[in-house]
Every structure is written in structure tokens, then in C-alpha cells.
Amino acid sequence: MTPLHWLGELIRELLLRVPMPVARGLFIALPLALLIWVLTLPNEETTRPGSIPGHRFNLKVGVAIALGLQILIYSLL
User: What pTM does this model have?
Assistant: First the structure.
């Protein structure tokens, strides 16, 4: 067995020890944390550069919808 096989087997065994509810919680917590971060960004950081004044398109809306759907799907699986 090569050192890479040994390392891969060690990582695999460590990851198999993580309980499934904990893994599921972490899998849902990551997009949830990203959603909170995106929603707290200032509007100046989330608008398209060179957009027409008065016609600002905020990218937070699309990202929030995408992350919300991702959280919903992961919650149901």
C-alpha cells in the first residue's frame, strides 16, 4: 500500500465516523451562512458595475433565491 493509499484510507475512516445528522446539518449550514453573508453585504457591493443610475439591479435577489432553493432541497433530502 502506497502512502497515498494509506492517507486516503485514514481520511475515509475518519469521515465515516461523522454521524449522518451532523453531516446533514453542516451541509445545510454552509449555504445558510452564505445566505446570511450575502444579505448583509452593502448594496454598492452587489450591483452590476456600469449600471444605469436609477435602474440598479441588485444581485442579492438572485443569489438569495438560488441559495434559498438550495437550502430547501438539501433540507428535504
Answer: 0.69
